[in-house]
Amino acid sequence: KDSKACHSDLITFIQIYLQDNHVYTTSLDGIVRVWNYSYITSFYNDDQQECTHVDIEPSYEKITNKRCSFAKPIQLLPKDDRSFPYHFYAQDIKGGIWILDLELKKNPDPWTKLYSCHNGPLRDMSPSPGGHYLATLGPEGKLKVYCYTIKRAVVMKQFNDQGVSLLWLPFQVDPTGNTIVAGFRSGILRMMVVKVQHTGEKPISEMASVIQIIKPHSSAITVLSINRAGNLLITGSKDKSIFLHSFDKNETTIVPLGMVKMPGAVTHLTWDPAKARNRFLVSCDNGQVVQIILDNENNKIIKEACNNTGTYLMKLRQTVTQAFRKKGKPRSPSQFFSKYMAKDLIWIEDKFSRHRHNYLYKIGGPPVAKLNISDGQSVQCVVELLGGKYMALGLNNGVIKLIKKGVKSCDFSDSWQIVMHATRNCNITKLCLSYDHKILYSCGTDSGIFAYKVKLKSDRDIKPLYLTTLTELPKCTTKNPNCPVLSLSLEEERIEQKKERLQEKHRISVGTFKQRLSCLLTTYYELVETNKALPKCLRIPKAFFRLQTQEERMLEKRKILAKEYNILAPLRARRQKLFERVHTFKKYFIDPIKTQKFYVFAIRKPNYLKSFPERRLFSKDPFGEEIDPVVTEREKRWEELFSGLEPKTQ
């Protein structure tokens, strides 16, 4: 009405009921409206060629209820049930699936939430070390734990921060296997304990408890990775750094060790699968891949960093490999990941590259070969199966490619593909295996999570492992663990503590100086009073007790320097005259002669040789005038001090 739009945002659904003359519309503005269809069609006829503007008001409207947390509807789908023709399935913008009753009656059925899922692109997930459980963290800050056996979520917890990375800690860190570490966009790292149980139909948010909150980074934590031994946790962030942590196994807490600066924002981190080589690769958004070997030298640096209370920063020995990037265009940040292929060879992949080339690099050197591994698609993630005999690749078109490695290390011809995720504008962001390598999980930017049974024959059997059933959850360490209560990162806290220590030291020194000055002033006034009590003939003049001002001290200093200048002036003049005489002597008697006159006398006979002086072709002073640096420095100092004053100030 009055030339206003039917909705204030995008209309996501239209349904026409001819028998009731109703038109149902929903929009992202969160309003469901019903319009009179016969009233709209009354303005149109067969002879009319152009559209006519119709002023109309809705017959009914329903605003989303904030109490039931129903958000803006993205899409509606009729239930297709004759008993309930006005029931619709609705998907809201927060990832909820609802059943709506839109029938125009006095007491419609209440809107019911059937299912809740993530409402954005999933970036990370992590399987449990025992049992078939999978933890996921969405960009809306929702943590969910799914059970593959019963095909539903069993734990759900909401945080007021955007989730980025996730890691379920192994049994080496927590013998119960119930500890999860999550990284968020604010740079906060949360450690939590989950209590998995299958009672009830809905996931219980009280089954997860945060036990530790630290902030190792000032920006989003993009990578969480733990070594094979389970004693070193590494976090990577967009703030161009990685942070090394250890674990206190008595209390199951994270202990920060030190921070290492990287050449770019960290996008991926991988360990060498070989047990003998304790090293890892860090991929950055500028195409540089850094290898760090945890040898004796670097381990010594890490131990020294633990004892350093001034800063967490440490410098480890690194080997940098630059990935190939097309020249001629500005190099914008991208997403890279890397993988060890041999002892000295690594595979570096650009997830957003349009060239779709897979290159094999020598560590610290240029590319040595091109891998035909992804059929022109960019690889987003990779996971090995059966000890490296197979590789599963997640591609940028939503396809999972399974490759059986050939006899040669670069033979990837034996492969097959499976399509589960959306194939348009969808990337598979993570692939992971269950602890027994029998289930493969995948997630993508389409918010989809899929599980696949792995039917490949394994050479060894893995014993079944189970999570310990907890009777109660540990208490939270903070009053409100959902909110990012930490404003400073660990390194920023240490910098602030160092500043506070320096300020405290300065305050103590200033206080000591003031106390000493107060004692001297007290003594000074006592002397003045004592002097006044003496007879006039024995009193010291008042000028002796008068304290000089700063201007008087500067004036006295200038007088001393002027006096010094006047004393040294004759010496400088005499020295200048001597320099002129030496220069004149050299100019007329030494410089014009190329060789000096000399005699060579015989010893046994009265014979001798005599040389004749040879003149130079050009008269040039090869030595020049000698300049004394001490004199030059003093002249500059005198010019600064006596600027604006007479040279003979008394």
Automatic annotation (TrEMBL):
Keywords: Repeat, WD repeat
WD repeat ranges per the UniProt record: 214-255
Matching InterPro entries: WD40/YVTN_repeat-like_dom_sf, WD40_repeat_dom_sf, WD40_rpt, WD_repeat_EMAP
Superkingdom of origin organism: Eukaryota
Organism: Lygus hesperus
Name of protein: WD repeat-containing protein 52
Short name of any one Pfam family annotated for the protein: WD40
Gene3D superfamilies, per the entry: YVTN repeat-like/Quinoprotein amine dehydrogenase
